[in-house]
Amino acid sequence: MLFVVNVSPANASEIASTGTLSFDLIATGGVLRALVCVKFEDSDLPAELVHDGTNFSRGYSQASRVAVPSGFRYVLRRDGGWPAGPQLAVFAFDTTGEAL
Predict the structure, then answer these.
(1) Phi/psi at 8 (nearest 5 deg)?
(2) How far apart, in whole angstroms, are the C-alpha atoms of residue 9 and residue 55?
(3) Rounded to whole angstroms, how far apart are CA atoms 94 and 80?
(4) Residue 9: cis peptide before it, omega within 30 degrees of 0
(5) What pLDDT was estimated at residue 24?
(6) Gap between the Cα atoms of 26 and 48, Å rounded
(7) d(Cα 7, Cα 33) in Å, to the nearest integer?
(8) What is d(CA 98, CA 84) in angstroms, rounded to the nearest whole number?
(9) Largest CA distance in the chain
């Protein structure tokens, strides 16, 4: 199972346009690869791919990912700020290559 924990700011909280969004992505068998996307709440902007499992996309040069037990910790900061409230979408695969 996949868990998104330690989300900051908490769900339904406002995020400053220049603020960071952080969370831990963990799985009981470990996370091998994860695709992280954001969709902007109440916006006509398209969803953005933030991390492709290897690299951060253009526009997220100040973002980071570090290993934690059974997964990763992400700290996302969008270059130029958040245009609206970001909503996360995560697609992950465990260490055996199975989708979580």
Answers:
(1) -140, 125
(2) 23
(3) 33
(4) yes
(5) 96
(6) 22
(7) 19
(8) 33
(9) 38
Starting from the edge strand earliest in sequence, which strands make up the sheet with 86-94, in order?
Answer: 48-51, 31-40, 86-94
The residue length of the chain stands at 100
Number of C-beta neighbours around residue 33 at 10 A: 15
pLDDT classification of 12: cutoffs 50, 70, 90: low
Q: pTM of the prediction? A: 0.89
Coil vs helix vs strand at 46: coil
Q: Quick: pLDDT tens for 26-62.
A: 988 888 889 999 998 778 889 999 999 999 999 999 9
Pair of tokens at residue 5: 């924990």
Using the structure block, give the residue that is written with the tokens 């831990």: 24
Fold of 2-94: Immunoglobulin-like (2.60.40)
Listed by start position, the domains of the chain span 2-94
